[in-house]
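From the pipeline queue, job 12 of 40. The input is one protein chain; the requested action is below.

Action: predict structure.
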Amino acid sequence: MQKDKTHEEQKAQPSKPPEDVKKGEEEKKKGEGNQKEADSKKEEKEEKIKKPRKLASVRKVDSVEPFEGKNAIEIATVGGWTVVVPKKLGLKKGDFVVYCEIDSILPKWKMFEFMAKQSYRLKSVKMFGKMTQGLIISFEDLGKIENPSAKYIPDQRCIEYSKEEEGVKKQTKILLEEGVDLTEVLQIEKYEEAQIPSGSSQKASFRHWPFRRMGREIKTSKNSQKSLEELNSL
């Protein structure tokens, strides 16, 4: 009786799958895992494409260093980007500012007149031998914006902004907290290079003449230096 019971228990136990079957199952699971990871990365990429780039946003100043040989300007770092700024801004590490990224087309406002000879486009350029990338705007200078739908409120550190949605004008308060997107408020557009028509032998007509890019050293133009001098005099 005991022998029969033992025999039945052994019979009930599942037989071990051959090594090739186990290997096939492992490869299948690995393949499914890789597919899920690929799908996840694809979704992230698509999400980034859909999400508009923050060309102007509130950022924290990482550091401020003196500009060797220059008394009126210094070098600020924001999110890894270096920007030459007027010393009179009085920037300190930890200050919050509005940072405008490269490839931004600034509006033709009086506060940005110094960028007119650069066609109001921000680029990575060298100024007096130092790289500058983008533009820093202090909160105080937000009082100079010429967007009729926006008004800077200094004591509340916010911008009152009215926007029409579905035919209804809605007014909101935009608190100037780190990461807040101000691209629309500052009416900044993204620079896009003209596309060369397929089969055309003509050179592309660029709206704004770019500096040399793709990792090559960007040399300073006289206009860039003059722009900085005018920025300094504001």
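Job complete. Residues 201-221 have pLDDT under 50 and may be disordered.
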